[in-house]
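Incident review: delayed structure delivery

Summary: a single-chain prediction request sat in the queue longer than the usual turnaround. Root cause was a stuck worker, restarted by the on-call engineer. No data loss occurred. The affected request and its eventual output are reproduced below so the record is complete for anyone auditing the incident later.

Affected input:
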Amino acid sequence: MKHSDGWQNTTYEDPNRYEKPVTNSINKTVNRYTDWQVSQHIDYQATQTLSLYADGSFYRKRVYRPCGIPDYKTYDFLYRNASASTGGKMKLKNNNSITADIHYDSHAYYYAYTHETWDKEYDDNGKEISFPYSPGDKGLQSDQSRLLIQTKGIFNLPYFNRLSAGVDMEINWLDAPRRLDEKNVSDNTGSFYLQDEWSPFSQLNITAGARLTLNNNFGMRATPKVSALYKLGDFNLRATYSEGFKTPTLKELHYRYIRQMSLVILNLGNKDLEPQTSRYVSGGVEYNGTDFSISATGYCNWLDHMITLVTIPTSQAPGDLVVTYDPARVRQYQNMDDARTCGIDINAKWMPFKTLTLAGGYSYLDTEANQYDEEDEVMKHIVIDGMAHHRGTVSAVWNYDRKNSNYRLSVGLYGRFQSKRYYQDDGNGKSYHLWRLNTRHQFNLGKQWDAEINAGIDNILNYYETTYHGLNYGTNTAGRTFYVSLMVQFGQKKRKTT
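Output delivered after worker restart:
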């Protein structure tokens, strides 16, 4: 079990609702919260060939929102998450195996009322429906559950073939009394896949496969994939082609919620959404030397009916919702006519000395999306929210490890940067670069005890956003942070028995 009770120096971001933060005299956001989690994992070796496992967890978090100047918040945010899993693996002859897993999780989100609150809505005829909440009451906003069942077999076949086959079943439920037109909604998706890895000789590997997906709301679709790897000394050459099929989520289809910051934004689901399909191609080259390695990969993804959130005229929103919420802007999930994303990823690592490792990565991304505007009868270019052309990371890590010593030291300097992020509304997110210094101290305290201490400074240059609250941020870092953590491990080494 772990528990925390502290002050969170950033605005708590709920994916379903945004509120103005409580601010202190120095104009920094301060939210008090408590959270705790209980989890357990059990492994059981039933036989030499059969292993089983089970695990579960429960998580609760409450964000306290004071009721007073400048904002009168009459309820807190309450989150309850739970999950449970079980499964096993059967080892067969010739290194073949069969695995089976069952996983269930639930994510619930409530308003925990601290003061008497009158809530109201309007029916289709414009009649007001009002009802009260008292302190101590909880109002369910959304409860999303998922059941995932998976089975998979791996079989080594003659002529250098390795076959993978599996069946997946996923069932989703969504209960949101105030945010759905229906009482609750659900969907289920089943899929069957086959994949064969063929290595006719040691330098070449070809992987080909296909997945057949069946959704109860959107029918059936087959998607193929093929990739190749060719080894040429210290170089690896890679190429991939694949197709994708993505059905809309329950929230994209049915869910509605309010973003309430500097202005009220109504976000709507769309029952008329179509599945998203894609064609993806990539190619890359890698060099793996003794002290230096580098890789470069270029890719392009063409999407049809891409699902994204776009701003629509208020006149196109349901009239009862406009009357109820009086939004300044309305956004809805819609399909793009077509979209494209292309980019390149470069990663490199160099060890000039045995104790020093230098690494860096860079990504370039370019996107384009088009949608036909039926009102203006023209094709319009749509910005894909959150897109940034340039991203990168750098690091330098020095390790100190003496022979016959029970102490090891690692000192690392890490940096990441990002260019401007583009959005459809409210301006773009700023570019930034952040730096972190971390020291790791590892102690061998005996045959059964080990300890590790991590201490350092995050965001060394104390960068934080000064953008007006409610607009788009490049990053939500709270500024310079000093941290320290301690981890102690205790274990009894396994002994062989004869």
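Verification: Residues 1-30, 494-498 have pLDDT under 50 and may be disordered.
Action items: add queue-age alerting; document worker restart procedure.
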